[in-house]
Structures are given as structure tokens and as C-alpha cells.
Amino acid sequence: MQSSNQGVHLGSNLRQEMSEQICLPLCLSPQRKKERKKEEEEEEEEEEEEEEEEEEEEEEEEEKGEKKEWEEDKVKRVNSAASVCLSDQIPAVLSTC
Predict the structure, then answer these.
(1) Measured between alpha carbons, how far apart are the two ends of the chain, in Å?
(2) Using CA of residue 25, residue 26, residue 28, residue 30, what is the dihedral sign?
(3) Which of 19, 45, 78, 84 pairs as cysteine with 23 (C-beta 3.0–4.6 A)?
(4) Where is this region: Disordered (predicted)?
(5) Cα 45 off chain centre by
């Protein structure tokens, strides 16, 4: 007798679980639907903001890298010009000695 009662009990639990999983989402109130939609939109906005921030950070990194390269090139040009200038003056200085 107990086994048949347990089967009935399990059946009612199964029905309750199925109604919660299938029927409740179909019967959501319009207010809850609006709330869900609003939550989804907020999540999408947050994701978009995060993507924009990441893109801005990447652009800043690129700009820093380009600026550093430009500064390094400038130093090389100055050093090169200085060495050319000095190499032109060395023979003149040596000839006076």
C-alpha cells in the first residue's frame, strides 16, 4: 500500500514542477514582463558601456605607443644630427692642433 501512495505523491510533485517550469512563464503578468524587458535592456547597456570603455583603453594604449615611438625617433634624429655636426668639426679642430 505504501508504494502506491508514494507513486501518487511523486506524481503530484512532478505535476507541480512541470506547472512551475512550463505554465508560470507563460502566465507572467504584464508588469513582470516589463520588468524583465527593462532588466535585459539595462544588461545590454552595461555590456555596451564596458565594450566602449575597453575600446577607449585600447585606443589610449595605441596613442601612448605611437607617442613613445615618435619620441624615440626624435631622440635618434637629434643624436644623428649632433654626430654629423661633430664629425664635421673634428677635422677642423684637429688641424688647428
Answers:
(1) 124
(2) positive
(3) 19
(4) 31-74
(5) 13
CA angle, 47 as apex, 34 and 55 as ends, to 5°? Answer: 155
**CA dist 10 → 4, 5, 6, 21 (Å):** 10, 9, 6, 16
CA–CA gap between residue 42 and residue 19 (Å, rounded): 29
| Residue 1: per-residue pLDDT | 47
Q: Which amino acid is present at 77?
A: R
Q: Can you read off the three cell numbers belonging to residue 45?
A: 547597456
Residue 5 in grid coordinates: 501512495
- What stretch of H or E contains 54? helix 30-96
Residue 55 burial by CB count (10 A; 0-12/13-18/19+): exposed, middle or buried? exposed
